[in-house]
Specification:
Layout: H1 44-47, H2 50-55, H3 61-68, H4 74-85, H5 95-100, H6 110-115, E1 145-149, E2 152-156, H7 190-202, E3 208-212, H8 221-233, E4 239-243, H9 246-249, H10 252-256, H11 258-273, E5 277-282, H12 292-303, E6 308-313, H13 322-334, E7 337-343, H14 358-368, E8 379-384, E9 389-392, E10 398-400, E11 405-409, E12 418-422, H15 430-436, H16 439-454
Bound molecules: pyridoxal-5'-phosphate (PLP) and iron/sulfur cluster.
The site of iron/sulfur cluster (SF4) has 10 residues, from loops.
């Protein structure tokens, strides 16, 4: 049998204004960094080197001002300085991300929102906020290993990242000490790693390890090898993931740091020969973070047979509307990254302005599911306060939309226990908001929710 060649249609990849529904295919390949005063004269080859991206990362407001100059008014820098005073994270932002920010509208820009705090937008913290809200340290049998779920564990291999995100859940350990927080230190150390590996080897039920941090992008190639080989050689380990924000913030590294990318590939191939799965989990939050460079980097990993999945964080003003989330999901899928999870924002110090209500997030989820294949549709997750673990956001036992209190159970992790999640207070009605300011009322709203949940009336 012979088939006629189907007629080829333009796939719209190069159009500046693609037809509705196909925007995800238009990826920036212009020299977008040239609009930043300090990068004006930098050519593509220099800009797209991981050495430049790492060395020129912005780590202070003074440096930010030197790079941006009078592109933004002086008042903006002052706003960031004030914002940092209440933030548990210091700043670190790559030239790549900095250049993708729309500096004509820094206050409204979704990338600026994620990396640079401004005092004028900050809100008071939720009264039920604790520093390590997920109780990762409480479930850690050895420093830097959280064993909460029966068959898998989370290994914090190091405590630095290529960038620092305002909303980091692990602000208790990740990054430099700030005015707000003196951190638990989990640096790379042979002795600490050996204790972690010894614990993993001693637990026959462990089959799956999340290697995170911090961020494995900051490991040396030899350390990637050492870690990968050691885990693969533990008999009962069937699979593990390297978790890194890297592809979203310095995609160039995958293309120009051959030693690192080859180490990753080597571990994946070694795993494949042993019939064990090694994958990369990354963290894109907004479609504007995905450019032509991202596509080139993801193409390289595709050619090397490396699976990449994404875990996003739902953030107000960044991706909490269905159009943006749909574009993110479609664009990730387009560059062969599987959208795995979307996390409701944890309760973290100094970032109440980034959280959304459970209701708002569930509305986004309803409008995302059905857009594309089920395996490219993220599950929306609430990581419950106090260590109940990840729950499908829809699976609450009770959710009072008026008081903003949701109650979850977690039969596998902590049978019989109940866990809370709270909507941001500024999203509630005025009258309820004032009730939250009062400790007695607060108790009452939480007890009411708990009582209804326990009766199974939710
Ligand atoms: C998220 C997480 C895991 C992995 O959970 P998955 O649902 O398999 O992605 C493992 N351990 C801890 C402590 C976690 O927070
Ligand atoms: S890259 Fe990940 S671990 Fe590092 S600051 Fe951002 S969210 Fe936290």
């Amino acid at each position: 049998m012979e088939l006629a060649e189907p007629e080829v249609v333009d796939d719209c990849r190069w159009l500046e204004k693609p037809p509705a529904g196909l925007e995800h295919r238009t990826l920036r390949r212009d020299e977008f960094w040239r609009g930043i005063p300090a990068y004006e004269k930098i050519d593509a080859e220099a800009f797209h080197s991981h050495v430049f991206q790492t060395r020129s990362s912005i780590t202070s407001v003074d440096r930010l001002a030197r790079v941006l100059g009078n592109r933004v008014p002086e008042a903006f820098y002052e706003d960031v300085r004030k914002g940092l005073r209440r933030s548990p994270m210091s700043i670190r932002i790559s030239p790549y991300i900095l250049s993708l920010i729309d500096w004509d509208d820094p206050y409204g820009d979704p990338l600026r929102t994620q990396f640079l705090p401004v005092a004028s937008q900050q809100l008071p913290d939720h009264p039920e906020l604790y520093l390590d809200a997920l109780n990762e340290q409480g479930d850690a049998p050895v420093p830097g290993l959280t064993h909460r779920y029966p068959d898998r564990a989370l290994f914090l291999a190091l405590d630095t990242c290529p960038v620092y995100c305002r909303f980091c859940t692990r602000s208790y350990a990740v990054g430099l000490d700030t005015e707000e927080v003196e951190k638990v230190h989990l640096g790379v150390s042979r002795e600490r790693w050996e204790r972690v590996f010894a614990y993993i080897a001693s637990r026959p039920e462990l089959e799956d390890i999340v290697v995170s941090g911090g961020d494995v992008y900051n490991l040396k190639a030899e350390q990637m090898w050492l870690l990968g080989e050691t885990l693969l050689k533990i008999n009962q380990i069937r699979r593990f993931r390297f978790a890194t924000k890297g592809p979203a913030v310095i995609p160039q590294k995958l293309l120009t740091d051959r030693a690192w990318t080859d180490a990753l590939t080597g571990v994946v191939e070694m795993g494949r020969r042993m019939h064990k799965e090694v994958v990369l989990h990354t963290h894109f939050n907004h479609p504007a973070e995905i450019t032509g460079v991202t596509q080139d980097a993801m193409d390289l990993l595709m050619e090397r047979g490396i699976t990449v999945r994404n875990q996003a964080v739902l953030q107000r003003g960044v991706n909490d509307d269905a159009a943006t989330m749909n574009l993110l999901v479609k664009r990730l899928s387009y560059v062969n990254v599987q959208p795995y999870y979307v996390f409701f924002h944890d309760l973290v110090q100094g970032v109440e302005d980034l959280r959304t209500s459970l209701e708002a997030g569930l509305q986004v989820e309803k409008r995302v599911r059905g857009t594309t294949a089920g395996f490219n549709t993220p599950t929306f997750i609430v990581d419950t306060l106090g260590g109940g673990g990840k729950r499908d956001a829809h699976s609450y036992e009770y959710y009072n939309r008026e008081t903003g209190v949701a109650v979850y159970t977690s039969p596998v992790v902590r049978p019989g226990a109940y866990f809370f999640y709270f909507d941001p207070i500024d999203c509630l009605d005025g009258e309820v908001r004032s009730r939250w300011a009062d400790a007695v009322w607060r108790r009452q709203m939480m007890e009411e929710a708990l009582a209804v949940a326990k009766q199974g009336m939710g």
